[in-house]
Amino acid sequence: MSFAEEQKRLAHWLSHKTGELSEIQPAGNLTVEESAQVYRNSIFASRCNAMAEIFPVVSALLGEESFQASCSYFFENTTFNKGTYQEYSAKFVTFLRTFPPLETLVYLADVAELERRYENTLEAKEVVVSNATPQADIKVTLQNPLDIFSSPYPIYSIWAFH
Q: In angstroms, rounded to a whole number, what is the distance separating the alpha carbons of residues 127 and 143?
């Protein structure tokens, strides 16, 4: 088996915890599965910590333990195409809308959507107008992260309070 194929198998196992890892030689006293689980836990912890940075208010509303547990469940049960934090955050908002343990927190997904859009706005490229004269007609178009959405809940007040 080639190195690239072995990497794909390991990546699949890390994401889904299924598949065979028999051709990997572990270092130390741990089995292949134990070694891979340590690595998997580290990846999940890093992803959950990044999500807490993107969604600090959602994390505060849920409490650290519940937020970490929700993130872990999310990453274990969600399929990703790109593996970017933009994709993770968009799918996390959808996850929050449908995750049964959080169904009584009806405003939570909207707060998360506000945080996701705020983060996207911070990451947006600046628009530079060149060769403009004071007399020129300038048309301003909002970039994708600068769109508007509404919520029936006081999400801005919740977000601003935290």
A: 9
Q: Report the candidate in 102, 117, 115, 111 with the shortest Cα–Cα distance to residue 54.
A: 115
**For residue range 73-87, what is the model confidence (pLDDT) as tens digits?**
999 888 888 888 889
pLDDT surpassing 90 at residue 154: yes
Q: How far apart are CA 63 and CA 135, in angstroms?
A: 54
Place of tokens 């990846």: 43
CB 145 within 8 A of CB 127: no
Helix, strand, coil % in the chain, rounded to nearest 5: 60, 0, 40
Cβ atoms within 10 Å, residue 58: 28
**DSSP label of 100:** G
